[in-house]
Amino acid sequence: MKPSLGALLGAAILSISAPAIAETLTIATVNNGDMIRMQGLTNDFTAKNPDVTVKWVTLEENVLRQRVTTDIATKGGQFDVLTIGTYEVPIWAKKGWLVPLANLGADYDVADLLPKIRDAVSVDGKLYAAPFYGESSMIMYRTDLFQKAGLTMPEKPTWDFVIDAAKKLTDKSAGVYGICLRGKAGWGENMAFLTAMANSYGARWFDEKWQPQFDKPEWKKTLTTYVDLMKAAGPPGASSNGFNENLALFNAGKCAMWIDATVAASFVTNPKDSRVADKVGFAMAPNAGLGKNANWLWAWNLAIPAGSKKVPAAEKFIGWATSKDYAKLVAAKEGWANVPPGTRTSLYQNPEYQKVAPFAKPTLASIDAADPNKPTVQPVPYVGVQYAAIPEFQGIGTAVGQQFSAALSGASTVDAALAAAQSSTEREMKRAGYIK
Fold first, then answer.
1. Spatial distance between the Cα atoms of 316 and 434, rounded to a whole number of angstroms
2. Does one domain contain both 411 and 303?
3. If both were cysteines, with which of 25, 156, 250, 345 could 255 make a disulfide (CB 3.0 to 4.6 Å apart)?
4. Average pLDDT over residues 50-79
């Protein structure tokens, strides 16, 4: 039996009036302050894109890396947008695991991205991830404590100065420690700091023939200096402290100095977050007189896994979250000082930003000083400042990080940690076919 004309018209009207089913984007991200802020502003995106809803999966840094790496390697399809670092982008793009970002919006302005950061997320001239924030590392220090101790922080301090100042500024009875540094094991946690420090002391992960170098004097000097410094002037339980733990310590007034990501600058100077917001100065990460500072280069970026069924919606989200307009949105809600840093030239040319961000100039100088193509004093076969951009580095770096964290906690000696790092790295490099 044929349906009546009225029934057909009724069905047509229903289908016109039925709301379109919203597409859900699942976004994996790290639990850092700027990403938490982005989640709080998601309504701005969904208001402009009512056909898209957003579901967040927010994870601690080491867990995020494991989950995202497993998902993309197995083509699990759990996530539509990934938060990944400059380490993963070139490796994964070459494996065909990422979608090139060609449609981020007419007014996106790729040319405005800082050249060092743009290069780090491009392969063969194509953008494979969009930087959400970029960073180097620098010294954040308490100007009041320096003044009280009669110390003046140089713009480009040496390690000798930093070590001496850290000891003088330590007052354990008052719960103030001369220096806070990462100790939590992880290739992107303690090893980010220690690799950058090692670069300044003339050490390197591998020689030009991919032989691991942990049995060389430069690494012994680096790790001995670090462990001794932390024992003399660091907080208790430092082997459990990563970026977020040290940020909390610094903001609570427990650290006279903290060498870490430049992105922390807006948090340590924000009176809402920090008890010492009006007493913070900035300087370049230290050097040992060999021509390299102990500063890294990194960006957290948003990318789309290959095989995604939601590429247009994912590109819309990435275009929104990494645009100039997003910076203006954060500025309107939280002030210019809290805009995600380190990605766009226009931000550093903005007089409103310069006026409220005393860290703008040292951040840009630190990013410019980092050279992923020549990260070390001696030549190396890899690219990357605080990592070696090879697929095996994640596993190798984490294993070494565990050994070095054990040396810091006293569960191992410096010599034993270096010997274990050398043998485990040699074994993995042989297995992967880099060395015989």
1. 40
2. no
3. 250
4. 91
Give the model confidence (pLDDT) of 8-37 as tens digits: 444 444 444 444 567 999 999 998 888 999
Range of the structural domain that residue 211 is part of: 137-296+366-431
Q: Are residues 152 and 288 in the same domain?
A: yes
**pLDDT on residue 75:** 87
Q: How far apart are CA 230 and CA 228, in angstroms?
A: 6
Domains identified in the chain, total number: 2
Indicate if 108 and 218 belong to the same structural domain. Answer: no
200, pLDDT greater than 90? yes
277 and 423 both lie in a single domain: yes
> How many angstroms separate the CA atoms of 218 and 198, rounded?
7
Strand intervals (E) in 17-155: 23-30, 52-59, 81-85, 122-123, 126-127, 130-135, 137-142
CB contact set of 145 (below 8 Å; sequence gap of 6+):
169, 176, 256, 279
Instruction: Give residue-wise pLDDT tens across range 310-342.
Output: 999 999 999 999 999 999 999 999 999 899 999
Whether 190 and 184 have beta carbons less than 8 Å apart is answered as: yes
Share of the chain above pLDDT 70, in %: 95
Mapping DSSP onto H, E and C, the string for 348-398 reads HCCHHHHHHCCCHHHHHHHHHHCCCCCCCCCCCCCCCCCCCCCCCHHHHHH
Q: For residue 7, give both structure tokens.
A: 């029934």
pLDDT band, very low/low/confident/very high, at 65 (cuts 50, 70, 90): confident
pLDDT per residue over 282-301, tens digit each? 999 999 999 999 999 999 99
Enumerate helices (H) and strands (E) in the chain, giving the number of each: 19, 10
Cα-based angle 151, 155, 159 (whole degrees, multiple of 5)? 70
Q: How far apart are CA 381 and CA 318, in angstroms?
A: 33
* 5, part of any domain: no
Instruction: Tell me, yes or no, whether 9 lies in a domain.
Output: no
Q: What residues form DSSP beta bridges with 81?
A: 27
Residue 113 has a pLDDT of 96
Residue 361 forms part of a structural domain = no
DSSP 208-266: TT--B-TTSHHHHHHHHHHHHHHHHHSPTTGGG--HHHHHHHHHTT-BSEEEEEGGGHH
Handedness of CA 205, 209, 215, 217 (dihedral sign): negative
- Is 286 found in the same domain as 147? yes
Among residues 338, 356, 374, the one where a domain terminates is 356
